[in-house]
Amino acid sequence: MAESAESSKDYFVTTVNEDHATICWGCGLRLLLRTHAPVFKCGWCGAITSQNVNKTETKCLWGRRLQDRCFVTILSVFMLFLICGGVWAVHWFVFSVSYTFGIFHYILTAILAATTVSTFSLSAFRCAGTPPTLLWGSYPVVGKGDLKNYTFCHYCVKPKSPRAHHCRSCGTCVLDMDHHCPFIGNCVGAANHRHFIAFLFSAVFSTIYISFISAYAGLHIWPPVKYRSLGHLNGSGRDLAIRAFKEVMLALVSSAVQLSARGLILVYLFVSSVSLQIGLSVLLWQQLCYIYEGKTYLSHLSSQGSGGDHIEEKGCQNIFRFFGCPYSIFRYLPTLRNSPKRHTK
Ligand SMILES: [Zn+2]
Ligand SMILES: [Zn+2]
Ligand SMILES: [Zn+2]
User: Fold this and answer.
1) Helix/strand/coil (H, E, C) string of 236-304?
2) Which of 222, 276, 282, 279 is CA-nearest to residue 81?
3) 24 annotated active-site
4) Ligand 3 center from residue 167 Cα (angstroms)
5) Domain range spanning residue 163?
6) Could you say which ligand is closest to the alpha carbon of residue 148?
7) Hey, is 47 helix, strand or coil?
8) Do both 215 and 331 map to the same domain?
9) Which sequence ranges are marked TM in the entry (predicted)?
10) 109 found inside a domain
11) Residue 187: nearest ligand to its CA?
């Protein structure tokens, strides 16, 4: 690296002013810089060098990995409970409605469970996306513009493309990194982003179905609610409404304590599935908005930080492209091949 730098000429310099010389990490050429320039770009290979490297590890890697594995285990057990507990809690009910409804319920449950578990496994255990390996470090090997806008990852000790980010939890650079998700214990990147979105879709549909079937079965198993006569309530306006509300809540609680274990599980299934449904729907909506804008979560943050000067093309074509639709459509419609590509996964 140093040898090639000494043999090089100084016309590969980007910012020539004073006599401050340094070495480009990308091609190994010697560059003359303006004094105290913290960040510079090589005029030959295009690599960006930052002289203010702040490499700080706040937590060891194995600690982060252990934390991720714990989250994944807890989530897997919870999913297993939702599936098995849900099947057990409503089994008596679905066949009491009709035999056809029972069969339909079991087919739908099997499809939703298989889809959710498989997409979860793919997004959790599949590599999120490894940036391509490039040759770097010496002038004859690195051609002009080969490392354009590449930076150097001091953790991985290799070039980092403009579309890659280093994840300190995974301890590696991830291509098109969206975010590090603690619940799947993995990064969401170019290789598993589609699986993650499929998991969110599947989980949202599953929780909608669980809340529907647990509410439907729970209404049949709920003990009769005995109200005290509301006629003795007197007063007017707000005071009367508060008293009536208290009376109704008291009647509901007194009937809820008579619920069987199956009934309590149904209540738990309903409450937890509705809570999950809300959280997952918000996350899915946010993800679809970023895909529609042709961005990832991290590129959205960086575009905000840079004042939004890099404007991406919004549109449904980003969503189609994300899910791989053009590859099947373009085989039949070759004239659409020239449409601009922004969000490539
Ligand atoms: Zn260079
Ligand atoms: Zn890295
Ligand atoms: Zn990560």
Assistant:
1) CHHHHHHHHHHHHHHHHHHHHCCCCHHHHHHHHHHHHHHHHHHHHHHHHHHHHHHHHCCCCHHHHHHHH
2) 276
3) no
4) 5
5) 2-54+132-175
6) 1
7) coil
8) no
9) 71-91, 103-125, 196-219, 265-285
10) yes
11) 3
